[in-house]
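Let's practice the habit of predicting before peeking. Look at the sequence and jot down your guess about where helices and strands might fall. Then scroll down.
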Amino acid sequence: MLGICIRCPSKDCEKSEVDTFDFCQYGVAFYNTGSVIKKKEESVTLRHISHNLRHELNKVLQTIVAEASLIDPTVSTKKIELDKSASKIVGATVIIDQFIEMIAGVNEFHPSSHYSANLDKKSNLLKVLDKYSKVFSLIVNTRRSKNIKFHFNVNKKTNITFASHMIEYIISIMMDNIWKYSIDESTATISATANNSSDIELKFTNISKPITNSEMIFDKGFQTKSESEGFGYGLYWAQVLIQHYNELSKRNSDLLELVHEQHVIDNEKAQQIFIIRNLRA
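Done guessing? Here is the structure:
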């Protein structure tokens, strides 16, 4: 008998339907044969952890934002102003929420009725870019870049018109990467240009150290720095999100895609270009 099962007061596994395979609230896999409950080793899955973490912290984050708004009524989760203390507090809650979503992984973004109901919600592209360029500047440690400047070549009227929540999460991954890997004191440029079908090509350009095996940059677990504190999952998740976006879009052509180019300048510098093509605007 598993230790956690001895302490379990609910015994939900014993109340399950016959011929049921499931996980209980503690992450223990079980199968109800009708005559006996067969149990596997206790294993609290990442999905269980992330689901409970988001559930418990959501109200806390809402309270932080509400209290910050009492300090400054103009504060917003959509616009971060680094010269205002209340806005920096809100920015910190945005970071926490983003990292909880990353713990949850792309499972939270699978095509579903929940996200289908919000596919037409619009977000202003320039505001999203400005928000995350500032949000990730709040994370300060010795392994992150310092004093990065951003240049936005984006029309202020350009909106994300389809699955904007997915696109915002992808953009947050791109911005986080810029803050992680750029050379100190360098400039990152983000530009948006419309194509013949009025879709947008969104290009992120920054200067970093040359990446060895850059063709593997979207692979699960690939890290551009051996000393990185991350797990190398961000760009992989971005690609999976794009796959889900395309499943929801129902398009047969002009699919959303994310590609990477590296142009080596010298032994210490390389230009990194990430391009999101066929973004609905």
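How did you do? The mean pLDDT is 85.
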